[in-house]
Amino acid sequence: MAFYPLQIAGLALGFLGMVGTLATTLLPQWRVSAFIGSNIIIFERLWEGLWMNCVRQARVRLQCKFYTSMLALPPAVETARALMCVAVALSFIALIIGICGMKQVQCTGSDQRVKAYLLGTSGVLFILTGIFVLIPVCWTANIIIREFYNPGVPIGQKRELGAALFLGWASTAVLFIGGGLLCGFCFCNRKKQWHRYPAPAYCVPHKEKRKNVTVPRKTSTSYV
Questions:
Q1: CB of 127 within 8 A of CB of 183?
Q2: What is the DSSP letter of 195?
Q3: What's the CA gap between 48 and 77, in Å, rounded?
Q4: pLDDT tens by residue, the chain, 224 residues
Q5: Which of 13, 64, 81, 108 is deepest in the core (most CB within 10 A)?
Q6: 181 exposure class (CB count in 10 Å sphere: 0-12, 13-18, 19+)
């Protein structure tokens, strides 16, 4: 199968994107406490994620607590949870489909055309995963920025962008690149198949020439 390094690079980037998506979902650093003012003495640092919030105090170990109620969460957190869970599931399915489309894997047979379609499907799912990651990350970042510049929000409730959001943006870029490479591999493989097996030209069947067969005629002789 041609363009073999292309599919290796696409699957490798897809795997990294899947790991980044899972880490973005689990990390609590979606919203971190903002330090506003001239006070340089910081006693605690607050982290808020999709599943827990953490408090890191000065010279004290990190303390985290899971959210006890799902119904008490803001709608943005609930939506981000659902979208990130779907993204993790899609990335895992895309990776499995991509592995089945590898040249060395024989679970799908030896048909190169089927393998190319499987890799193309994997690329589309990776791109779709990137979209599902991008939506909650950008939505959360927009909420944080609006609240930060809103004068009506108290200073103690203002938050800044956490490390999980930047990891989500990086994972989205990796997923887009990996999915694009796999889709490009599928397109290049199909184009090669078209050049290798051109469409058969339409041929008009020739009529067989009838052979002139001379049948001897019977001559009747009359006897008088």
A1: yes
A2: H
A3: 10
A4: 446 788 888 899 999 999 999 999 999 999 988 776 655 556 678 888 999 988 887 667 788 888 888 888 888 999 999 999 999 999 999 999 988 887 666 655 566 677 788 888 999 999 999 999 999 999 999 999 998 888 888 877 888 899 999 999 999 999 999 999 888 877 776 655 544 444 454 444 555 444 554 555 555 444 43
A5: 13
A6: buried
CB 196 within 8 Å of CB 60: no
The torsion of the CA quartet 106, 6, 11, 129, rounded to 10 degrees, works out to: -120
Exposure of 3 in the CB half-sphere (CA atoms within 13 A): 20
Find the Cα–Cα–Cα–Cα dihedral 157, 161, 167, 169, rounded to 10°.
Answer: 120
Closest to 50 (Cα-Cα) out of 31, 34, 71: 31
HEC readout, the chain? CCCHHHHHHHHHHHHHHHHHHHHHHHCCCCEEECCCCCCCCCCEEEEECCCEEEEEECCCCCEEEECCCCCCCCHHHHHHHHHHHHHHHHHHHHHHHHHHCCCCCCCCCCCHHHHHHHHHHHHHHHHHHHHHHHHHHHHHHHHHHHHHCCCCCCHHHCEEECHHHHHHHHHHHHHHHHHHHHHHHHHHHHHHHHHHCCCCCCCCCCCCCCCCCCCCCCCCCCCC
